[in-house]
Amino acid sequence: xAGTLTFDAPDRWNAFLYREETASFGDGVLAGVPVAxxxxxxxxGMPTTCGSLILxxxxxxxxxxxxxxxxxxGAALAGKTNxxxxxxxxxxxxxxxxxxxxxxxxxxxxxxxSGGSAxxxxxxxxxxxxxxxxxxSIRCPASFCxxxxxxxxxxxxxxxxxxAYSNSLEQIGPLATTVADASLLMSVIAGYDRRxxxxxxxxxxxxxxxxxxxxxxxxxxxxxxxxxxxxxxxxVRDAIAVLEDLGAEAVPCSMPSMASALAAYYxxxxxxxxxxxxxxxxxxxxxxxxxxxxxxxxxREFRGDRFGKEVQRRIMLGTFALSAGxxxxxxxxxxxxxxxxxxDFARIFVDADVxxxxxxxxxxxxxxxxxxxxxxxxxxxxxxxxNLAGVPAISVPCGRVNGLPVGLQIIGRHFEDERVVDTAxxxxxxxxx
Length: 433
Ligand code: GLN
Fold this sequence. Notes:
The protein is α/β, with parallel strands linked by helices. The protein is about 35% helix and about 15% strand.
């Protein structure tokens, strides 16, 4: 049984695109707990726009698998959160519905693309939220807003009902104020679903443990290289020292594939996006195209008007990378580079149980500060490797630089989400004492 009340007024941070207050009488582990949902996750009877005008007013006729699981667990769906259009961005400035601001400092970006979910949690509007992470979109806003964000192992959480941006890279995952809450939400959403062909039968039933004695931590030099802010690097090194005090051992290592990881990511995600976003044709979803014109003129006008600049840029980049004459030069090469990233992780994970480094090279910048797309892409350098390899990664707050939160990123082996969570939990328990 549930009662519903809708709010139209935006919150101070523009975190929510749509709010709902559901009085839930469920009796699961999340009974009555309000959970916010990123607006690219389908919710039956609730708008799902992906931050795009092309889906303005679209209301899905079905729930994503994770939403079904949330309802079964008794959660109260708090509404849908703002995001970079289709997940394409690092700041939540690429939303057709205006940017979200960072609750820590409203002159700054909250990170992206799950910026609405992170801001809603950081501002205390909800205790937990779902985001999606294709190249860092859970971990980046968690880091910028000073909260916890987990990108699960690829395949562990069903993508059924997640509006696809780049299928081979993305996972849905939790954002919360504490590691224990993120872990609890993960236990609700993980598990096998036959409707996602990449789903793996690895449920997550885990109570975080702070005992990390004997843990070997790989510290890749590339995570502290050029472009990484000195203050951020210092906070993260301090955090690794805390883990060592708790009985872990840090082992220096190197990830040469980082040199081509970002390029591999951007060729792969734009290629997949160019194909995925072809479905927005003004016929099947959202507002309808004017069919009195020639179809190609109508199609061009509709997509030209309703897709934002960044989305159009990526569709063009991806279409180019996949075109007959250039496929071998771009897409095929990106897959080789992707295999090298995977091989680097496999090698490092022989001698290390987890890898630690910063989540983002800097703290949150000012709204409007980064306008060059390439400069924006470069800030994803530390988060994309985990997506390219499909391994789990978490961001946990580890202090501040100039008053702005810094995130410690912990990356693990495939299906060792539990170990990543334990490492973050051990740090959090020690640092927050
Ligand atoms: N910033 C990256 C991009 O723009 C990651 C986005 C994401 O994870 N959805 O593609």
